[in-house]
Write a structure and sequence with these properties.
By secondary structure, the chain is mainly alpha-helical. The protein has a single domain, classed as NCX, central ion-binding region (A middle domain of Talin 1, Up-down Bundle), CATH 1.20.1420. It has helices spanning 7-17, 22-63, 66-77, 81-107, 114-135, 146-177, 190-222, 226-238, 240-251, 255-280, 293-309, 317-337; strands at 110-111, 314-315. Strands 1-2 form a two-stranded antiparallel ribbon. The longest helix is centred in the N-terminal third of the chain and has 42 residues, at 22-63.
């Protein structure tokens, strides 16, 4: 995997040499983000070996979502508000249906942490309801008007407060239940871990700028809407670390860990990343959380559907296939929705 990191500097060099058309720049930068996301995930895991679960969790929240956060803020700067909202909602849905579904197919029968799972579903349901307040007024008129951007501020603050409170409680619970693994990784030094995080984050910012800058041309050339590209392709690429990690650990028989990765990542995007982007956007260009009806419907339906499938806490390949089928339905809905 380390060899694939070379794709990032190659894509950056080719961009500044201006030798590739925008369509190929989009494809190459999207591919480059996948190993960068893996490196960020790997470095946070090694850093957590030195800092303990509390700070390790904070590092994972901060750096694990770095690709999505950077992509969103660059898109805000370029005025691509539909791309921002689409990539964020698409990220939540892909974690719930695509990542979790693929993990269950790879892992087969197992037991999920039912309490932790439904805590994540509760957070996701709460976030979906809160998003209705700035979203519904945006279904008529200009969805990016100032009044909607201002309405997003209190909603974001409430979600962040809930995120901090629940994360604190969840970390304390997991610390009490934690049993040290006999397969503990040979950790990098803390200095090496932090250095890798900073280098990967800076490189991600450069690659993400190329990705967002070429998105409009790519979507036009391949005949797809910007919303579809953002909600499906960009969302999957931005979540590459979680996607690969969850499927790999599930294949190794660690179903509970795979479920934790997918569900925690979905909840984290909904109650941490989306409000963080909304608040940070005030430093650039205020972003309204005026999600479209198809986005709210996809969020709500995905949460209810996944919770129903996993109600008894048991996993199976059939349940994974059902979740994947649900993701196909959402992708078709995003395709038919078109741009606003």
């Amino acid at each position: 995997m380390f060899a694939t990191l070379a794709v990032a500097p190659i894509s950056i060099a080719l961009h500044y040499l201006d030798v590739l058309p925008d369509t190929w720049e989009f494809v190459l930068s999207a591919v480059a983000l996948i190993p960068l996301a893996w490196l960020i995930g790997e470095a946070t895991e090694h850093a957590a070996e030195h800092t303990g679960p509390g700070i390790g969790g904070f590092l994972n929240a901060t750096f694990g979502n770095a690709p999505e956060l950077i992509i969103a803020l660059i898109a805000v700067h370029q005025g691509l508000t539909e791309v921002v909202r689409g990539s964020l909602t698409g990220s939540v849905v892909s974690n719930l249906l695509l990542v979790l579904g693929a993990s269950l197919v790879a892992g087969g029968k197992g037991q999920l942490d039912r309490y932790s799972s439904f805590l994540a579903f509760g957070l996701l349901g709460f976030a979906t309801v809160m998003f209705l307040f700035p979203a519904i007024p945006g279904w008529e008129g200009d969805p990016d008007r100032d009044s909607l951007a201002k309405l997003a501020v209190p909603v974001s603050i409430v979600l962040l407060i809930v995120y901090v409170a629940v994360t604190w409680y969840s970390l304390r619970r997991h610390a009490r239940l934690h049993v040290a693994s006999d397969e503990a990784i040979q950790a990098w030094s803390l200095r090496a871990s932090i250095g890798a995080l900073l280098l990967a984050t800076v490189t991600t910012a450069l690659v993400a700028e190329i990705l967002v800058g070429s998105l409009e041309v790519f979507s036009e050339r391949v005949g797809l809407t910007e919303f579809f590209v953002a909600a499906v392709i960009v969302a999957i690429v931005g979540n590459a670390a979680e996607h690969g990690g969850a499927v790999v650990v599930a294949y190794r028989g660690k179903i509970a860990l795979a479920g934790e990765i997918a569900l925690s990542s979905a909840a984290q995007v909904a109650v941490f990343l989306i409000p963080a982007v909304a608040l940070l956007s005030w430093l650039i260009d205020p972003l309204a959380l005026s999600f479209r009806p198809v986005e709210i419907a996809a969020l709500g339906a995905s949460v209810l559907f996944t919770a129903a499938v996993l109600f008894n806490g048991h996993s199976s390949r059939l349940k994974g296939a059902v979740l994947l089928a649900g993701y196909v339905v959402v992708v078709i809905a995003f395709f038919l929705a078109g741009d606003r």
